Amino acid sequence: MTNLQEIRSIIAKSKRWDLAFQIVGLLSMLFGIVTLMALVLNLMHDGLPRLDWQFITSFPSRKAEEAGILSAWVGSALVMLVTAATSIPVGIAAGIYLEEYAKKGWLSDFIEINVTNLAGVPSIVYGLLALGLFVYRFKLGESVLTAGLTLALLVLPIVIVTTREALRAIPNSIREAAYAVGASKWQVIWDHVLRYSTGTILTGIIVGLARAIGETAPLVTIGALTFISFLPEPPIQGQFPFISFKWLLAPFTVLPIQMFDWVSRPQEEFQVNAAAAGIVLVIMTLAMNGVAIFLRYRLRKDIKW
């Protein structure tokens, strides 16, 4: 009888601890959500009155009422295009090699530790690295290409780590079943392992690109402009060869830098402009994440375990 009472007491105590943990977790989640919503609502309250077509299609100006973000949002879009085109294939390929092909030993452990550490390095360090490598060594200048490669270095460790974790989570039974019917190692990875892990990999890509689009410090380090009143040459031309890559070497600015320039000015009108630019940056981030989430949903929809 005594043992039964002790067991009941232990169970009741465990339930109380579980309830306490649930309450603390719920309050923590609500605190984060409420704080985020308050900041977003405050941003929208300040910036929505200024957000119109003229603001989106105008270049920056010394007059707050005439200033716009055309060069900034176009620059952000082009830089993120270079970042995604560089970091996604390289990061996924590196993750596949380290997880599926590299021999387990001190060298692979050393690489894994360093890749994990690089994911937490301050962004300004990447800016200094890019300044010495891309600007001074490779002579790429303060260009869209330099900015995209800089942010690609920032995103790359996140993509590699996420890819490895996604591949590691796939049950070995899937690999063994594919080998049993005569598939090669690459066929197992391409047709089965990657197919099941794509959703998780896309989640890591979302996190990495969302971090990159809001970065300012590394782009300031490599020489991004705070005031630019022209657009890069368009990549699609009306004459042969119809495609131009001159925009890659064009000077640039991005939305976070434009916002930084405006909030550093004392006039209240420029503060309103910065809030409106912040809304556009949030919309661009949500749109980018929405595309990735849609792709993840479509890929998972057809997968049957």
UniProtKB/TrEMBL annotation:
<comment type="similarity">
    <text>Belongs to the binding-protein-dependent transport system permease family. CysTW subfamily.</text>
</comment>
<keyword id="KW-0472">Membrane</keyword>
<feature type="transmembrane region" description="Helical">
    <location>
        <begin position="143"/>
        <end position="163"/>
    </location>
</feature>
<feature type="domain" description="ABC transmembrane type-1">
    <location>
        <begin position="73"/>
        <end position="292"/>
    </location>
</feature>
<dbReference type="InterPro" id="IPR005672">
    <property type="entry name" value="Phosphate_PstA"/>
</dbReference>
<feature type="transmembrane region" description="Helical">
    <location>
        <begin position="118"/>
        <end position="136"/>
    </location>
</feature>
<protein>
    <recommendedName>
        <fullName>Phosphate transport system permease protein PstA</fullName>
    </recommendedName>
</protein>
<dbReference type="Pfam" id="PF00528">
    <property type="entry name" value="BPD_transp_1"/>
</dbReference>
<feature type="transmembrane region" description="Helical">
    <location>
        <begin position="70"/>
        <end position="98"/>
    </location>
</feature>
<keyword id="KW-1003">Cell membrane</keyword>
<keyword id="KW-0812">Transmembrane</keyword>
<dbReference type="InterPro" id="IPR000515">
    <property type="entry name" value="MetI-like"/>
</dbReference>
<keyword id="KW-1133">Transmembrane helix</keyword>
<keyword id="KW-0813">Transport</keyword>
<feature type="transmembrane region" description="Helical">
    <location>
        <begin position="201"/>
        <end position="228"/>
    </location>
</feature>
<feature type="transmembrane region" description="Helical">
    <location>
        <begin position="272"/>
        <end position="295"/>
    </location>
</feature>
<dbReference type="InterPro" id="IPR035906">
    <property type="entry name" value="MetI-like_sf"/>
</dbReference>
<feature type="transmembrane region" description="Helical">
    <location>
        <begin position="20"/>
        <end position="41"/>
    </location>
</feature>
